Amino acid sequence: MNKTLLRDAAEYFHDREGRLLQREDAVAALAQAIDVDGPTAGHLVAGLTGDRVDPVVAVRTVRETFVGVLDFVEGDGWYGFLDYHDYHGRHRVGVCAQCVHEVTTDDDVFRTTTAEESWMPVSEDIERHYEQTHSTVNPDSVAVETGAILRSRTTAGGKRVWHTGNDGTASGFDARTVDGKTRTDLARGQLLYQWYDTSSRHSSNSHPTTKSGLDAYFDLDSSGVSAGGLGTHPGSLNWATSSDYPDRKPPYLPGDGYAWEAFGEIWIPEAGDYTFGLDADDATDLSIDGSVVVGWYDGHGTDGNYGHNGTVTLSRGWHSFRARYEEGTGGDGISVAWKQPGDSSYSVIPGTQFRIEPT
């Protein structure tokens, strides 16, 4: 891989820190920005995102992949970035800058992760690593450089210099366990979510009255729809700004004008007929194995009693799951419940029944 082009590509994404681009758009924009052809730009993106110690990450959803630098920080002798793993979910990664200087492959670089919202656990792990492995090195004196880019605080004017010994050729996150848990364990109890800014579309089109209409609220090619964010949703789906459901609305969602979906797999403990109850504010539907089981479109509030529902016969095992809704103005929320075979009343589906779809 051409190291000069790799540096230019890393520079491009670092300049857009905090912004994720659809992979196809990122490749096209990168090709134009650094004057290379599409295949070369695609190769550069793959090299950066395949480097387990580089802040340029690829975030995959069921529909597409996003590329960019989510967040980048520097500490004493280490750097950190926000990553999103198919199984580990959203997490913070810390990398030892001294290891980046010393070793020849990414697998030999000390790397630590945390799912906490603070960088403190990462900083503490790195500090212990220095004591055990680099005891003669003062972390303050170590230039902070990534797998493709160095941002040294000691360089005049914040000028960027580059590290070329780590171009991703020996990278890849292939550990079979993380913190003693298997990939399947890490995936349990959560779903992926993605939300879209649809305020402009709602202003022009009001609420969707059909499935195809709701589809447009989740299509970035639709007029008035832009990417909002994505990540992992832990637990059940059971919140509303009204008093109908108790859980707190996710803090990353805006007050109005958005569309939100959660998707993954649901565990069906025994074969039989399952009735799914869906309540949301506003237009909403729920799909199992790619087919809509229940939909309630147009604008409305929550009804608090799962008056909109559908029944489907399912085999024991994992089945694909997707629940979504759009919010125009006013109240918002969603709740998904079920009646298992033999049940006479609805119960909110526990988060333990969900998992991120394995790949």
Q: How would you characterize this protein structure?
A:
The protein is of the alpha+beta class and 359 residues long. It folds into two domains: 3-184, no CATH class; 188-355, Jelly Rolls, CATH 2.60.120. Helix content is 21%, strand content 33%. The chain has eight helices and 21 strands. The protein has helices spanning 3-14, 23-34, 38-49, 97-102, 120-133, 183-187, 199-205, 211-216; strands at residues 21-22, 57-60, 65-68, 72-75, 78-85, 89-96, 111-114, 177-178, 181-182, 190-197, 226-234, 238-240, 258-268, 272-281, 284-288, 291-296, 308-314, 317-327, 333-339, 347-348, 354-355. The strands form five sheets. Strands 10, 11, 13, 15, 16, 18 and 21 form a seven-stranded antiparallel beta sheet that branches. Strands 12, 14, 17, 19 and 20 form a five-stranded antiparallel beta sheet that branches. Strands 4-5-6-7 form a four-stranded antiparallel beta sheet. Strand 8 (177-178) and strand 9 form a beta hairpin. Helix 1 crosses helix 3 (38-49) and helix 2 crosses helix 3 (38-49). The longest helix has 14 residues, at 120-133. The two termini are 27 Å apart. Mean pLDDT is 82; it is low at 147-183.
Task: Jot down its keywords.
359 residues; Jelly Rolls; globular; 2 domains; alpha+beta
CA gyration radius, whole angstroms: 23 Å
**SSE pattern:** HEHHEEEEEHEHEEHEHHEEEEEEEEEEE
Poorly predicted tracts of residues: 147-183
Outline type: globular
Summarize the amount of helix as a percent range: 10-25%
Distance between the termini: 27 Å
Question: Approximately what portion of the residues adopt beta-strand conformation?
Answer: 25-35%
Which oligomeric state applies?
single chain
Structural class: alpha+beta
Please state the average pLDDT score. 82
Number of helices: 8
Q: Sheet with the most strands?
A: 7 strands, antiparallel
Report the strand count: 21
Count of discrete domains = 2
